[in-house]
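Quick one:
INPUT:
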């Protein structure tokens, strides 16, 4: 198998839309309209599982702002703890609402370093998760964009 691009795998695992891995090239297809052949030919394509970015964002925000009045004022403390896999439509809806409110919370800080730290944490979380997922599934991977992750 061709090594997969770990950044693309990470984006695919946390995309929130159907994503398929093409075994022969290691490429990820994230189109909203997946060709029928990808859905039916499991020898050539693998549908990636879907994981929750709200999980990672919630970890970061709770660790860095969970005890602040601002975190509570934005209502971020009122959401359930999001698992890595969202099992119900209601949980997916709440996670989507949380993510919207979390982005407003971060953007209201208007400090580039705050947004950068938030983005770096979620990027690193997704890459680390994708590396573990690839190892568990026997997939070799390589980095395409970042060095020495």
């Amino acid at each position: 198998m061709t090594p997969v691009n770990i950044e693309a795998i990470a984006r695919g695992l946390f995309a929130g839309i159907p994503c398929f891995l093409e075994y022969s090239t290691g490429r990820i297809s994230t189109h909203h309209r997946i060709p029928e052949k990808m859905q039916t030919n499991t020898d050539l394509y693998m549908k990636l599982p879907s994981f929750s970015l709200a999980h990672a964002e919630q970890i970061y925000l709770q660790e860095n702002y969970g005890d602040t009045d601002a975190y509570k004022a934005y209502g971020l403390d009122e959401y359930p703890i999001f698992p890595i896999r969202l099992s119900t439509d209601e949980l997916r809806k709440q996670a989507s609402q949380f993510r919207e409110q979390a982005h407003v919370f971060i953007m209201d800080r208007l400090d580039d370093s705050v947004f950068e730290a938030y983005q770096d944490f979620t990027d690193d979380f997704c890459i680390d998760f994708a590396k573990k997922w690839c190892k568990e599934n026997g997939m070799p991977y390589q980095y395409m964009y970042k060095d020495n992750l």
